[in-house]
Amino acid sequence: MLIDVKDVDRAFYERHLADWLPDRLIDAHTHLWLRHMVDQKSGVSRSAKWPRLVAEDNSIGDLLETYKLLLPQQKVTPVVFGMPERNIDLAMVNGYTAGAALSHRLPSLIVTSPEWSAEELEQQVITGGFLGLKPYLNFAPAHIDVADITIFDFLPHHQLEVVDAHGWIVVLHIPRPARIGDPVNLEQMLEIERRYPNIRLIYPHIGRAYCLPDLGDALEVLRESERMMFDFSANTNVEVFERFLGVFGPKRLIFGTDLPILRMRMRRICEDGFYLNLVPPGLYGDVSVDPHMREVSEEEGEQLSFFLYEELLAFRRAAEATRLSASDLEDVFYNNAARLVAAAGGAVDRAAAAPEAGKWPTRQLHLVWPDNQVDLPAAPDLSPDYELRIYQPEDLPGYLELMASATFGFFTEEMVEKDLLRVLPDGFFVIEHRPTGQLVATAQAAHWPSALYPYGGQMGWLAARPEHSGKGLGTIVVAAATRRMLSAGYRCIYLETDDWRFPALKTYLKLGYVPHLYEPAAEARWRSVCYRLAWPFTPEVWPKAASLER
């Protein structure tokens, strides 16, 4: 069982939250990662230790199930991003996040490294379909002491310039022991707002002001700011909420949770400006690893409910004290975040979004293999370090890791089993990196007729590890899958993909696939793709039939 919801929890929710919360919420702060992405033997974290006592991982399924269990009367849309720890494989966690966001039509942000160039950052965001960044102090250069880290150490100016040019979102965790009250932080926050006016900035946890002294004079210093937003994730301090609302009002505040850690059973207090999480005895193992943890008696522990409920109750008390209206609550819990997502080029309900609304059209782009083309262009030579071969049952764990690294983190063993029922014999191709034994690229030749393609064979599930890009591996597996279908006699070969998968789209086009304008909106979408790829836009010669019966 993911979460044991007890009578004390149900009573808390019904008494304080069920009828007070708006019907729809946007949770602007959630983390996704899977256990196999974590290297337990490497990486030094510069953040608090106690969150790692709460959850070993948080899949997209677990996140969505958490809302069903803890907020059963609300419809919650999360903004998702990976877990920003140094011992988590960044490519894999970002790939998993992108895939989960695509599968469930959710807004997502990419966890970044300050070592990325401007070009690399731009490519990673665009090809992953992200709406912005989640930088974190853990990725600042290792030689900098945690007390001395500045914002620009993990979010450098060359990356800020890219974000500003695109108008993307940044969820920016405040570093340094003095938190939002630190004068260096305040100076840099104002500098970012002044120099980069198009960035949609969110400072989580109200700048980590978990106790009232953490605020310092920050609210006065920032009073004249115009655009920076704050979320109140993982914060339960009523006085901090009241002070913030008194200066900035509800238009600058956003609901966030920081799940999965808000599944924690706890109550937070402050002692001499130091926050403490009071938890049931024995529930979270050895709490001595973090001074912010303190166990209570068995009797008191039985009455503790979820961190999420404590956060929401604290905000309710501040909202009532500052006389927020129902409209104000709609802004804090939904509208403010929805406006940011829309301004960054996304949509909260992507299932209902028109193609021109952003990167997430309801239906994918389609390409087909020309009916009269038998020969494939020559594929690149495969380096001796790589082997093209057919998938074997023992490849399953490595295959799932490959798919997660390539934005298909929603892939499961059951999905692979279903694919195997459609794949042609000797039509499931993988490329193995011989020195490491890793699977690094894949594509499938499958018998997959549909209403559009009644006799169709599908070139499906192209994926390649980002760290092996530039070696032509994607071209090689696509050519192999296409050649397999041609040899089997298929005259109708098609594939489906997303508008933002530019490297894959260029691979298909260069090999000889052509766009299929199967719906009226497809032509405008292809115009945008061709412009981005510097590819000839020739809709007059592309097939337009609603069904290709060949």
Content-based structural category: alpha/beta
Helix content: 25-40%
- Outline: elongated
* Share of β-strand residues: 15-25%
Note the total helix count: 18
As laid out across the biggest beta sheet, the strand order is: 13-14-15-16-17-12-18
Unreliable spans: 350-362
Kindly report how far apart the N and C termini lie. 50 Å
How would you state the average pLDDT, rounded? 91
Number of strands: 18
Question: How many whole angstroms does the radius of gyration measure?
Answer: 25 Å
User: What's the story with the biggest beta sheet?
Assistant: 7 strands, mixed
Question: Topology of this protein?
Answer:
Layout: H1 7-17, E1 24-32, H2 60-70, E2 75-82, H3 90-104, E3 110-111, H4 118-127, E4 132-134, H5 151-154, H6 157-166, E5 169-171, H7 183-195, E6 200-203, H8 205-208, H9 218-221, E7 229-231, H10 238-248, E8 253-254, E9 267-271, E10 274-279, E11 293-295, H11 298-301, H12 307-321, H13 326-343, E12 365-368, E13 386-390, H14 396-405, H15 413-422, E14 423-433, E15 438-447, E16 457-464, H16 473-487, E17 493-497, H17 502-511, E18 514-515, H18 522-533
Parallel strand pairs: 1-2, 3-4, 4-5, 5-6, 6-7, 7-8, 10-11, 16-17
Antiparallel strand pairs: 9-10, 12-17, 12-18, 13-14, 14-15, 15-16
